[in-house]
Amino acid sequence: MIEVKNITKRYGNHVAVDNLSFQVEKGMIYGFLGPNGAGKSTTMNIMTGYIAATDGTVEINGYDILKEPEKAKKCIGYLPELPPVYPDMTVEEYLIFVAEIKQVKKAERRDQIASIMEQTQIAEVKGRLIRNLSKGYKQRVGLAQAIVGYPEVIILDEPTVGLDPKQIIEMRELIKTLSEKHTIILSSHILSEVSAVCDHIMIISKGKLAASDTPEGLMTLLKGGKQLEISVLGEQERFEKILSEIEDIENYKIAADTNKKELHGVVRFGADKDIRKELFYRLAASDMPIMSLGLSEKSLEDVFLALTEEETAHDSDI
Hints:
By secondary structure, the chain is α/β, with parallel strands linked by helices.
């Protein structure tokens, strides 16, 4: 469907995208995840032919985006971060204009536009000037123009930026609906956004691909272990002895709260282990009441931070 091969984009001495390669398969929702300035928008602009890469190639359905731009761009619908709408047109006028540019057959235009307006839920405002629409409706109009012509791939750059919580939920549902007939690529720096809708996530940091996997695969990649947070009453020396005798514990830290006369421990152990039962019986046998107990595992946020921080650390070593 899409093959990105070793693309690099330089602006003077600044490298926005650094030798990036990946493939996009048909019928999935892909997420570009990365902090602001990571190179997500630049990559999307290169993929859609808005700007040229300094090095490397992009092929859409076998068509080189620079050598055969017309054939390649017919396969793509693009919604930039700022929707490319004309404020002095009505919604319907604008979509007809887009359909003409995309060379949609004249006999099909009205029916296609009516269907797309229903799909994106903007039919009720089709006669209104775009300048008078709310941010949420303008975003929907931008999405509608990306769908005109029914391209196989829809690329969305920060599609929920500036929307309120209700509008964000509605946009997510709309993206999921669109994925039934289109391959979707969306960029975001919001973790919950990507994990809520995407089948596959590519984490970009400093213009490089830091990781590429399913949300579940990324979790497994850096799962590494579990962490138990526990508070008990008793003597610190005895607590340390109990922890040191449990074989599956990898390491632990203990802090004393003199006000509450509690000991707070952070205990780490293997991802495939569970020490809670053994720890409970040992503490009970030593007459050390458990005041609180909580188990935590690495979240997608932890994975994201670990990968982007690791990339930054590598850069600082060069």
